[in-house]
Structure formats: structure tokens, C-alpha cells
Amino acid sequence: MVGLSGVWRFDVRAGEGERSPQVFERWEAGLSEAYVPLAVSPRDSGEFRGWIVLGKYPDVELSTLGAAGQRVDRTETLIARTDIELLHTSIQMAGHGRLHQDGRVAEVGPGEMVFYDSTRPYHWEFDGEWEMDSVQVTLGRLRERTGITMGEIPIATTVTRDSPAGIVSGFLRELAELQDANPVHAAALAGSAVDLLASAISLTAGHTVPGESVETLNRRRVVEFMRRHCGDIRLTVDGIAAGCDISRRTLYRLLDQFDGGPATILRRMRIERACELLTARSDLPVTAVAHACGFATERQFYRAFRIEMGLTPAAYRTTGGGPSPR
């Protein structure tokens, strides 16, 4: 493993002069070092590549990992090697996996989340290439922070992205992306992951969640709604409130930790999307970019873009990208 800015990176692949079995052995060792002792077997005899990006914070560990098809086992013998008790939470990013634990089988596809317990046998099956985000928290810390015990956790139950608890998976996905780009900012936000996980567990189990957690989830729900619909020219502050089934007053309260209020947040989301299109789609006229990002007119787009980026859309495209939105 190689350390960089507080984040550990591990990458193995079959290369010249190195056979796939040797690479796979190193992959198994890397997985076991990053998580818990595991046994791994390949699904085919082709070339293999696997990688892990892992960040460790006071309350949680957060990682992104991916590899070729394989089976991953956590057996009684492997469990006996360590006394650590962890709740694993995985969010599938690409490919499909099947988690087996306690007689249950969870089919997990992109955007879906699942919980499992490191103290009881389980195994994962991946038929092809896959990628996932993973969150680990010790059961002791989970009990201390939230009062939740392992018996209350819905193990090997697929949490879909459109479910109430799916809001949490969206937060964890974004946190994993932030960790790769800006570990310092990710560390500042990682503390809320345990409370959000507790909310996701309670919601999946059909229980109520504490008021503070409800507030956090509602904030995430609003931000996710805005991100999904920011390209709609018709979307307004009133439309956001109506779409989230809350009042304007509640909307402003939920977003009061962000500078400028909901209208400013919406504008910034639209500009972020515009920046992506300007650099990725050089064939699109600026007017088309404006409309695709929720701006009614090119003039409105130019004005908003200059406010956020300090230069015109055309100049941004010419330079291949400028500074991040202010």
C-alpha cells in the first residue's frame, strides 16, 4: 500500500513476467489487510486487476474498491483470527454482486446498498468486473454513538437508491468521491457518516429515526432532488419546496448552512454541470449548454457563469477549464 494525503492506495494487476495467480495472491493479502481476513478465488483464469483507495477517520473507514470477477469468503476460521467487530456497508457503483449471510441473499446493483456483519460468515459473488464504495464502523462505536445493536441491523437486505434510506447511500458515494479528490474536506464530513448510517439502518428496519437525523436526511433529500432536476429550466425555489413536499420556510432552514440559500445553490449546481459539458462536449454550442443546464436564455447563462467562474463560458472552454465555482 502507498500512503498519499492520509488516503491509502493499493493496486495490483497481471503484468509482464508476473502470472495472474501471483497477482491474485497479492490481491487477497491486500483485501485482508485493508478490511478483515478474507479468502478470495477468481471466477476465471484471465488477467486480473484489483484496486483499493482507503481512508481512515476517527469513527469510520471509507474506501472505494474494484476488481475482476471473483468470490470473497469470510469463514469461521478467518473470523477466529481477529477479535474486531465491524459493520460493513457497501454501495455498489458498477457491476453486480450477490451477498450471502445468515441464510439471506442480497442481489446488489449500481446505486444499491447492503449491510453485513464481520463477526458472522458471509461471502460475496461477482461474476464480472465490479466497483463499490465501502464504509466500516466498529460495532462498539455504533452502539456508543447511536444505541443500535447488531441484532437490529437488517443484514443482507438490499437498500435501493430510491428508498428513504437510499439518501444515505448518495451521501456516502459523494463522500468517497470527495475523499479521492480532497481528503481534508472528506475528513471534516466523515463524522456525520455514523449518524447517517444509523438513520439508514432504522429506516430499512422500519423504525423511526431521531429528530436530528431526520433533519440531516431531509437536507440530503433536498440536495439530491436539486441535483437531479437542476437541468430543468422550470425549476424554481417554489418548485424545489413542492417537489420535496416541504414549505419554503423549511427549505430555507434546511439549507441555511450553505451560503446564499437555495437559489444560489441551484445556480452553482447548474454552473457545475455547465463546466462539465463545456469541456466534455466541444460539439455543443454554448446556447445548447445553457439550455441543458437549466438556463432559459444565453444571456442569463453568461451572467451566472461570470458570477461563479469569473470568466465567460467560451473562455472557460478555450482554456480547457478554469477555477472551481466560487
Detailed description of the structure:
The chain has helices at residues 20-34, 76-79, 139-146, 166-181, 183-190, 192-204, 211-229, 237-243, 248-254, 261-280, 286-292, 298-309, 313-318; strands at residues 2-4, 7-13, 39-42, 49-56, 61-67, 70-74, 86-94, 97-101, 104-108, 113-117, 122-126, 130-138. With 326 residues, the protein is α+β, with helices and mostly antiparallel strands. It folds into 2 domains: 54-204, Regulatory protein AraC (Jelly Rolls, Sandwich); 227-318, Arc Repressor Mutant, subunit A, CATH 1.10.10.60. Helix 4 packs antiparallel against helix 5. It is globular and about 65 Å long. The two termini are 35 Å apart.
What descriptive keywords fit this protein?
22% strand, 44% helix, disordered N terminus, five-stranded antiparallel β-sheet, Jelly Rolls, Arc Repressor Mutant, subunit A, alpha+beta, 12 strands, 326 residues, seven-stranded antiparallel β-sheet, 2 domains, transcription
Order of helices and strands: EEHEEEEHEEEEEEHHHHHHHHHHH
Label the overall shape.
globular
Low-confidence regions: 1-5
What percentage of the residues does DSSP assign to strands (E)? 15-25%
| Structural class based on helices, strands and sheet pairing | alpha+beta
Q: Span between N and C termini?
A: 35 Å
Q: Which fold name is given in CATH as the topology of the largest domain?
A: Jelly Rolls
Total count of domains: 2
How many β-strand stretches?
Answer: 12
Relative helix content: 40-55%
The CATH superfamily of the largest domain is identified as: Regulatory protein AraC
Main beta-sheet strand count, sense and barrel state: 7 strands, antiparallel
CATH class of the largest domain: Mainly Beta
Number of helices: 13
| Name of the CATH architecture of the largest domain | Sandwich
Q: Compute the average pLDDT.
A: 87
Return Rg in Å.
22 Å
